[in-house]
Amino acid sequence: MKTVLYTRVLIWTPIIFIGYFISAQIGFKIAFLNSQVSPVWPPEGVGLASLLLLGPIALPGIYLGATLANFFNNPHIQTAFIIGIGNTLSSYVNYRIIKRVAEKTDPIYSTKNLIYFLSIGTIPGSFISTVLGVTSLWYWDFLSTELYFNVFFTWFSGEMLGFLIVAPLLYVWFHPKAKLKLELHKQVELLLWIILVYVSGTIAFSDEWPLLFLPIPFVIVTSIRFRQFGATLATVVLAFTAVTLTIDGKGVFARRDESGLSINDSLIFLDAFLFCISGIAYFLVTATRERERAQQASLNSLQVLNELKEKANEELEKKVLERTAVIEEQRVEIEKQLDMAKRIQESLFPQKEIFPEGVEILFKNIPMMKVGGDLYDIVWRPEKQELGVFICDVSGHGIPAALLSALVKTSLDKWKEDPSDLKENLESIRTQIIPNLREHFVTASLLHLHTDSGSLTFARAGHFPLFIIRKSGALVSLKPMGRIITPIFAILAEEERFQLETGDLIVMLTDGLTEAREPESLQMFGEERLLHLIRDMRGLPLKEIRDQVFQSVIQISGGITAIQDDLTFGLIRYTGSVDEKVKVGS
């Protein structure tokens, strides 16, 4: 590894040295004050681009180029030595900052990268180089004290423009993975746009037609058409044109004082203009590149989603086929065990008489087969005048659903101990049953009622709303949030409270009642039809209402043997006093 590193240093050091030295001569051509203060210092762009492309192995070439270029221009070893250190440090400091904060070393890869580059990726290094360079010139009497800060700002802005304009150009055009591949007519088009930038810049910075805004649309079009390649090339051409003409005393930024043209003041204003133009061009490029990446990411995501969808469909189809085969093999044995299962399931429903004070209550269940997945349970705590009601519907029919309903029954112990905390009880039920749910799910509701005050609380997990038919016939529906019980996600149940009045009738049910269908038309019995039927009979005894509802549902289904789902139906009438006892049962 060390041998490879040394070899790379030996190869790249003379190349970077030559590039740095040549770019320094270009900078000196437009320099003033003993030919060492340049309004644009291209070598800083060479140094930063070399570090971004090659890493720290570029440092020897940068330092040698900076020191020898300054000494060649002004044979004073001390200033050349210190300015070389400043130039090297400025590039390295900015390089380290960009590497640390940016997602990629490309200065115009994204808007975030560009903001980092324009601020903390150029200012710190420029400041270091300026302090060392200007101070060394002042210390060895190449610069008077009166001119120190004027030269300081010019030096600083020149360093900034070197980083801002030259570094992106070299990075983009010399990056091995960012080659500009254009057909001949595109190359000709790019050349024409660059010529237009040059011509418009010449006009904008002339005394005859000071149309400062003229180059801007050409820079923008070049940036949009050719992305980072066009933006960097256009800004360099415009900068070169603007600087050379301003130094010749032409254009709106040529500032004059008593002694004539004030190059220092002129170039400070010019540098601000070039900063804005290059910033606009770079931001257009980053916005375009980010949009293209977002579109590509969207296409990739869509492809992945389609692949996942196909895979999910295949897996679902496979599971359905496997489950069907298993059910067919077990059908005969299941029929033999249905009678026993029926007796067992009947024991899951309330077995003793319950006489809650202040309410009439009546529930009934009719399974589709001999067993089913519906379940209800009731808790009455006379010492607290609390009534708790639980109702649920397990997906599926027959023995599998019956087994799961038995599992649900075993999870109700916590609820029976304290039926008041509905949300916690629903989560407790889910926690206990989800290891055995697999492809099944459960909908459930919990009701808690203080029979002495009529204060009612209701929560559900994907189940029907709680329907309350007022004594006047008005219908109230309680619909708190709550998702079905599955192993996939939490219930997130909420509670809703309601104050009952004497004569209010509560309706609880499972979907077998509302989804009963006529054999021929397949028209469902429906929720609206069911509630309308109950409302018309609200003053009758609960047993008559119950019998009429079951009779209507079974009739529309084509008979008791034709029902397509388990039927569970419950009625609770709030009396407000102990004026009637109704036995709970089927």
From TrEMBL:
GO terms for molecular function: phosphatase activity. It is found in: Cell membrane. Residues 356-574 form the PPM-type phosphatase domain. It is a multi-pass membrane protein. Its main location: membrane. SMART domains: PP2C_SIG (SM00331). Keywords: Cell membrane, Coiled coil, Hydrolase, Membrane, Transmembrane, Transmembrane helix. GO terms for cellular component: plasma membrane. SUPFAM superfamilies: PP2C-like. Residues 299-347 form a coiled coil. The chain crosses the membrane at residues 12-33, 45-64, 76-93, 114-140, 152-174, 190-206, 226-247, 267-285. Pfam families: MASE1, SpoIIE. This is Serine/threonine protein phosphatase. The lineage of its organism: Bacteria, Pseudomonadati, Spirochaetota, Spirochaetia, Leptospirales.
